[in-house]
Amino acid sequence: MLFISGGEIVLVMMLALLFFGSKAIPDIAKTLGKGMREFKKATNEIKREFEDNTGDFKREINDIRSTVKSETKKISQDIDQVSSKMKEEANKLNKEVEHISAEAERTTTQLEKEVEDASTKVEKKTANLEQEINEVASNAPLEAEDEAKNQKL
Q1: R_g of the chain computed on alpha carbons
Q2: Angstrom distance (rounded) from CA 151 to CA 111
Q3: CB 20 within 8 A of CB 28
């Protein structure tokens, strides 16, 4: 108890007996008890008044807190809904892009085959025409000789 030892307490009690006498000490203790009771009563009253006055603030703060929580929850739910809709739309678009890409790839492959086939046909026709031109060119001098012979005759 606040740096007071047992011997010091006994000394203080003896001094109190000497100064006030044995009859006055119970009255002093009674008065100190009443004072302590009044002090405790005043302290409790101040606490009660403080709680009464701040109770309204606490209720308002709790109301605001609950309103903020409910609004935050609503906003969060709205964001989740929009997010899920966007994900669905993104998945749909992704599937469409994949489908179009696959279709374009098939079409490109088919066009490449057709171009390759057409190129092969053109090469064959070109080779045939070159061969015919070569045959005509090689036969032309013979025909010219035959014609010259026919004219002489």
Answers
A1: 58
A2: 56
A3: yes
